[in-house]
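Duplicate of earlier report; Cell envelope-related transcriptional attenuator domain-containing protein input re-posted below.
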Amino acid sequence: MRRYSGDNKKPSVTKIIILAAAATILFATVLDYFNIGHLLIRGPKTIVQLVTDTGLKSTNGRVNILLLGIGGEGHDGPNLSDTMILASIDKSAKDAVLVSIPRDLWAPSISSKINAAYAFGQEKDQGGLELSKKTLSLLFGIPIHYAVRVDFSGFEKAVDLVGGLDTTVEIPFVDPQYPLEGKEDDLCGLKIETQDINGVQTEVVKTASGSAIILSQITDQENPFTCRYEALTFKQGPLHLDGKTALKFVRSRHGTNDEGSDFARSTRQQKVILAFRQKVISTSTLTNPTTIINLAKTFNRSIDTDIADDDIPLLVKLGQKIDPQTIRRVTLDAGRNTSVLDVGDPTNYNGQYVLDPKTDNWGDLADYVQGEIFKLEEEKVQD
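Output:
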């Protein structure tokens, strides 16, 4: 390891305005512009924090924040983390790194995919944020100081509240299998029967042609339940996204032109995050009290965080200093020559599709992540 050794509260209205932006780490300027006066009158302690930069949790000069996106109520697996990003920010704000974490990455400490950590924690007294932080910390050997969880319904509404987002599609793609909400278990007029196959009672799907497909062996390439999906098309060039389309753009997993990969998906997520940040800090948003209030209400219903009120002024100060153009992006994925992950042997993971280290050494994965976080600092030392 290079650098590291090994209570959730409902946000206040003041806190919500920053967390609407803090969900993407870089939105702290919103609170400074709109609410800094309110923060300052809280007392001498706040003023001392702003002046001296003391009190913000950090290790080896870096603040690490875990960002989680879940489907929320009405979605299949509502508490599974479909989006996971680790933000590591140098306290001088001269270096910020976003590490995108695939939901299929195996987490040995919970014997499951890492996207299940929040859901497991919610089922226990430990809490979803706490278990997510602990799981990631054990996996990468990195202390996680803060965590923010946003459900996608809140994100979708927030995008519409700011008038949509503008981005550019660099690689066009078609996704023929984007899941339709509420259709996850629809049989599409087909029947599931039990047949004796080699002496074993096996569930099969009878197709319209009369052929039978073993239910447990259905693949993306041969999936008879076509009514469960819609086809998405994103053409190359400028694109204006409303809330629903923005969500589809970042969640699509079966795109052509290699846009179904974790790397491509993470790239799209980061593009939308920055587009949302730009829209939130725009004059049209910040000078519209109705929009600000509605954003606060939206995120009040869809955010879970362990960021304390006393830490907000320091996060504001840190966020002010970050230059978005200097943010470094790291994506953990499989399939590329430079990927550090690979598809694991299903027999080692209860038959599941999972990602694990290409070297089969979890310590190598932790070293890689830590190396990327401290990359600039180590380059300076070598020079």
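Confidence is low (pLDDT under 50) at residues 7-54.

Merging into the original ticket.
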